[in-house]
Design brief:
CATH topology of the largest domain: Arc Repressor Mutant, subunit A
Shape: globular
CATH superfamily of the largest domain: Homeodomain-like
Number of strands: 2
Distance between the termini: 13 Å
Radius of gyration: 18 Å
Helix content: 55-70%
Structural class: mainly alpha
Largest sheet: 2 strands, antiparallel
Number of domains: 2
Order of helices and strands: HEEHHHHHHHH
Length: 179
């Protein structure tokens, strides 16, 4: 689950199945009842119909947690991104960052850093489109060392400078789920 909409869909599916949840967070669900194998299969089928997946593999679950922590920080947190992602991930997941980075690369086919950059650029696009902050403020909010650093990374990923992107007003954004 990588969005609030996904969480709502999961809650709805659990409700339809008569299951009560304690917590539904990005990538995690805690259900009050002990569920049977049949109920688990029903959940799996219901989630697949909604375009979601029930994960059983511990490594896949860890990868999802990494992705969800990054998405949550970049897209849904109002705090400035003044954190070290590697330390934050290690602390949140109780694993050595090298292990997390190697696992992520092996399973996802890209590095955690590339995943973070892709999401930061999508967030920058969103902030540019909203037109509430100037490029300097966006660079500061997204924890870039300078406007030049943001501009170079933006151009490398999108092929456009932030100012050119802003002029186009073409909403060339990708859904979070597709990054």
């Amino acid at each position: 689950m990588v969005s609030t909409r996904c969480k709502m869909m999961v809650k709805e599916e659990l409700k339809k199945l008569g299951l009560h949840y304690i917590m539904v967070e990005l990538g995690e669900v805690e259900i009050m009842e002990n569920i049977t194998a049949e109920q688990r299969e029903q959940i799996k089928i219901a989630l697949l119909k909604s375009g979601l997946e029930l994960m059983d593999d511990k490594k896949a679950m860890l990868i999802e947690k990494i992705k969800n922590i990054i998405v949550e920080l970049i897209h849904y947190s109002d705090e400035e991104l003044k954190i070290n992602f590697s330390d934050h991930l290690s602390e949140k997941l109780n694993h050595n960052y090298t292990y997390l980075a190697n696992l992520f690369s092996e399973v996802h086919g890209t590095t955690i850093e590339q995943f973070i950059i892709a999401h930061k650029i999508e967030r920058v696009k969103e902030l540019i489109i909203y037109d509430e902050l100037n490029i300097s403020e966006i660079a500061w909010k997204m924890n870039y060392s300078s406007v030049a650093h943001l501009s170079n990374q933006f151009k490398k990923i999108t092929g456009l400078s932030p100012s050119h992107f802003k002029q186009l007003k073409d909403k060339r954004r990708s859904p979070i789920e597709e990054i």
